[in-house]
Design goal:
The complex is a heterodimer of chains A (about 120) and B (about 130).
Chain A (H helix, E strand, L loop, with lengths): L4 E4 L2 E5 L6 H18 L3 E5 L8 H15 L4 E5 L3 H10 L7 E3 L2 H16 L1
Parallel strand pairs in A: 2-3, 3-4, 4-5
Antiparallel strand pairs in A: 1-2
Helix pairs in contact in A: 1-2
Chain B lengths: L1 E4 L2 H17 L4 H22 L2 E9 L4 E9 L7 H4 L14 H7 L2 E7 L3 E9 L4
Antiparallel strand pairs in B: 1-2, 2-3, 3-5, 4-5
Classes of the chains: A alpha/beta (about 120), B alpha+beta (about 130).
């Protein structure tokens, strides 16, 4: 299942659907990096509102995505983690500590805008 | 209900079957997520360590409650040091380990048998809370 990636100004927004397979996640990792490079994006928002399960593979792949994107000088923000998913992640000991998180798309964009405003002043 | 695990799309299939059963049994949405997450980790272990195996899903009846039983089994290499594997932070594949302590925390009952070269079976149960 292809994850749609939209361009919003200097940022990319990837909206994850439910029932993401491992292969889908790896494909997303490649697609996002390629897009960040091609569009010279400064930030990526990963919207996981519809993601029903965050397991160890998903959390590891998301951290890899953030790391790769950071090496391109861009920032990743994950938004929309459902409360039950957050609970399950904590029980499983999965942290996304090196990935910024925001409540929703709006706050994610706000976060990225603030980050780049302070970087350019 | 049995789901054969041999590829990463089978992990999603097992999760979704588990979710369907949990919904049918009337679990809360929070518990459904925990159940689906536990199934995902167990199925993933099968794939990572044994390449193939099976997840069995069924409802169980307790003295005055209903629950879900998940049995993840494989005929893989087995776990040579169970105590290590059940301790947080242990890993042989560079990941967060087998996630077994985590799965144990997500579920209400947890049982594991493993024999080197013979395989591994993990049995977990979650009971529906009466509100």
């Amino acid at each position: 299942m292809e994850v749609p990636i939209l361009k919003q100004g200097g940022f990319l927004i990837a909206t994850v659907q439910a029932a993401l397979t491992d292969a889908d996640l790896l494909h997303l990792r490649t697609a996002l990096l390629e897009r960040v490079v091609r569009m010279r994006s400064r930030g990526v928002i990963l919207d996981v509102t519809a993601l029903d399960v965050m397991d160890s593979f998903a959390s590891r792949t998301i951290r890899e995505i953030a790391h790769m994107i950071r090496l391109r000088g861009a920032e990743t923000v994950i938004v929309g983690i459902q409360p039950e998913v957050a609970f399950a992640m904590v029980q499983l000991g999965l942290t996304l500590e090196d990935v910024a998180a925001a409540l929703d798309l709006e706050e994610g964009l706000e976060y990225l805008n603030q980050k780049f405003k302070s970087a350019t002043t | 209900m049995r789901v054969q695990i041999a590829s990463d799309s089978d992990i999603v299939a097992a999760r979704s079957q588990g979710r369907t059963l949990a919904i049918k049994l009337g679990f809360s949405s929070g518990d459904i997520t925990l159940i689906a997450t536990a199934i995902s980790e167990l199925a993933r272990n099968i794939l990572t360590y044994a390449q193939q195996g099976e997840i069995l899903l069924k409802s169980v009846d307790g003295s005055n409650r209903t629950g879900i039983l998940i049995v993840a089994s494989d005929k893989g290499p087995g776990i040579s040091d169970l105590r290590q594997a059940l301790r947080d932070g242990f890993s042989t594949s560079g990941s967060l380990g087998m996630g077994l302590p985590g799965v144990r925390r997500l579920m209400d009952e947890f049982e594991i048998t493993s024999e080197p070269t013979r395989g591994t079976t993990v049995k977990v149960k979650k009971w529906k809370q009466w509100t």
